[in-house]
Amino acid sequence: MARAVLRILQAPSEQGALPQLYAAAVPDVRGGQFFFGPSGYKEMRGREVREVRHGAEAAHPETGYRLWTEAEQLTGVTYL
């Protein structure tokens, strides 16, 4: 039963990668525009990719700083 529910709620891997590919490859995407997702119900599935809403957590400066710092430490890459 859980598999059936997940099959309805989750997108296939190929479809899940589309927002990242869209953001990286479509010439119309502007700098600072980085919330893309499926156009379907609750932005969980859908064939079309569009700019989507983001939660308040995604715009929180302290959380962003912590994520950036942790990513630099884990990868050993520092961006200026």
Protein traits:
4 helices, mainly alpha, about 80 residues, two-stranded antiparallel sheet, 2 strands, about 10% strand
What does this 3D model show about the protein?
The chain has a domain at 2-54. The chain has helices at residues 2-9, 13-16, 18-25, 61-75, and strands at 36-38, 49-51. The model has no long low-confidence stretch (mean pLDDT 80). The longest helix has 15 residues, at 61-75. The protein is built from four helices and two strands. Helices cover 44% and strands 8% of the residues. The protein is mostly helical and 80 residues long.
Please give the radius of gyration in angstroms: 16 Å
Measure the end-to-end span.
49 Å
Shape: globular
SS-based class: mainly alpha
What is the total tally of β strands? 2
What percentage of residues falls in helices of 4 or more residues? 40-55%
Low-confidence runs (pLDDT<50, min 5 residues)? Answer: none
Helical region count?
A: 4
For the largest beta-sheet, the strand count, sense and barrel status come to: 2 strands, antiparallel
How would you summarize what this structure contains?
This protein has 80 residues and is mainly alpha-helical. The protein is built from four helices and two strands; from the N terminus they run H-H-H-E-E-H.
